[in-house]
Design a protein that fits this description.
The chain is mainly beta. The protein has two helices and eleven strands; from the N terminus they run αβββαββββββββ. About 9% of the residues have low confidence.
Length: 268
């Protein structure tokens, strides 16, 4: 497994070039009402229902509870149970949780202004704009100017380079966008709590509109034989929020004092 940070490509420029070169499959809506077409995801969405953990590792919504684990926006297994960790995965998870509970130095890609990485990117609470072109569904995230491209109706390449966001191909099954992703570097984590994965992670998503288009439901299945004893599934949601404008997000200055793998910086 590689533990070196992957090269960050200028994906934003690629997304803009795609949008300019290919005709949009649907017009981006501008009002407060989501478009009726179930295959038209265009517009702005905001992550919803981010779960947190108590010290007994029971998920709940919202902060402010006396037993809240700090900074624990998580992607948790359906049924509100812990993911099926292997010993390797559990050791990584326990170390991350211990650091947060006991205020020890720790670091993840976002600490050093790197991309959040898939799937953590999908629960970032900063808003995302979806742009659909002839062969691509692009998720333009406010957080750290991240761009995720889903290549439609294509086969997964035999070999893909390791990057934090991986490589994604998609197709429609009825009104559901099915996305398969791999090549996701183990330098990243699944959520802010520190749920780990290896370079072998494969993610399958089934994304659809629910509640008259007011929400996107993303059913994610994680398959990683290094970190988990079996595949496991979680559901995350995005709220329609087309009145939200994606804002500039500047993090790069922290690179002047980047942290190491243990969370220490040059200034202590």
């Amino acid at each position: 497994m590689s533990r070196k940070p992957p090269t960050v490509a200028l994906a934003a420029f690629a997304a803009l070039a795609l949008a300019a070169a290919a005709p949009a499959t649907a017009q981006a809506p501008t009002g407060a009402t989501p478009p009726k077409d179930p295959r038209n995801f265009q517009g702005t969405w905001m992550a919803a229902s981010r779960a947190h953990l108590t010290r007994e590792f029971k998920p709940h919504l919202g902060r402010g509870q006396p037993d809240d684990i700090p900074d624990s926006e998580i992607t948790w297994q359906e049924g509100d149970v812990m993911p099926p960790f292997t010993p390797w995965g559990k050791a990584k998870f326990d170390a991350a949780v211990d650091a947060q509970i006991n205020n020890k130095p720790h670091a993840d890609p976002s600490t050093n202004c790197m991309p959040h990485g898939l799937p953590r990117l999908m629960i970032a609470p900063y808003g995302v704009q979806v742009v659909q072109t002839k062969g691509t569904v692009a998720f333009l995230f406010a957080v750290n100017h991240n761009v995720r491209l889903i290549h439609m109706d294509q086969k997964m390449p035999a070999k893909v380079p390791l990057t934090l966001n991986g490589y994604s191909v998609g197709h429609w099954e009825g009104d559901t966008l099915v996305v398969n992703s791999k090549g996701i570097s183990s330098f990243g984590i699944i959520d802010q709590l520190g749920t780990p994965h290896s370079d072998e992670l494969k993610v399958t998503e089934r994304i659809r509109k629910i509640n008259d288009g007011k929400n996107l439901e993303d059913t994610m299945t994680f398959d990683d034989p290094v970190a988990y004893t079996r595949p496991w599934t979680a559901k995350i949601y995005q709220n329609w929020d087309n009145g939200h404008r994606i804002s500039e997000y500047v993090c790069e200055e922290n690179n002047r004092n980047a942290s190491d793998a243990e969370g220490h910086t040059s200034v202590r």
